[in-house]
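Hey L., structure's done. Input below.
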Amino acid sequence: MSDLSDSERIKIEHLLDMGGGVVLTFSDRTFRDFIIEQVQIDIDNEKFCDQGQSKAKRLRSFWRQEPNYVVGKLLLSFLEYWKTQKLINALTAKNISEALFEECIKISQRLIGERDNLDEVVDVSAHFEEIQEQIIEQIESARFTVWIAAAWFTDKTIFNKLVSKKNQGVNVQLIIIDDSINKSSGINYEDVFETYRIPEFGKYKNIMHNKFCVVDLRTVISGSYNFTNKAQFNHESITVVNGRENAEKFAEEFIKLKTTTPS
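Output:
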């Protein structure tokens, strides 16, 4: 059985619009077909009807009876569906915040990360050549989120890839410094996705000098490489780390950067 807490369950139920016994825009048939496709389990099985026949009640029973990994995997699929439906204006009247979506993504990732109570396997790879291609490959793999904190961002190839993912429903956010280089880049970041510009701060005019990207709260790209045209011709390096715990630490730092005013 999963260990969803009451507060986690409330967040998810709100996002999935389960208050009236429904789940998003699913009919009974599409609800059953969707779950079979995602986790190969029949939600119409009588064991999931112990609390009632509505879609919401069957889903609550599913959460209670199935293990963390299965519940987390299905939740991620629902979140992907939610994001897609929002793009085609099926849920625009719900006024559900992006912050809640991000919280539910983290809940799902936590459940998946605790599969069978095994220690997480972390995969690490270092790259010194074709770094732009490596970054684009990781961005292309994103299904839910891409969060980038980079002092300077002038690379239009990477930007265009982010635009493509944004148009697919991926939550893309960017943090850069507020300086002349980014202002003259010719890229209209704010017109496309959520962008935060960090001004100089402190007595010595310090800057936000991070260079990292978090993909789906599972993968982190970090190193010396700024997302700039010039960086392609420098001696640079990046490390790609696949691991939930590490990614959540970077995600927490990203949220801190975008919500804290420098002083």
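The first strand starts at residue 123 and ends at 127. The chain has two domains: 6-117, 123-259.

-- N.
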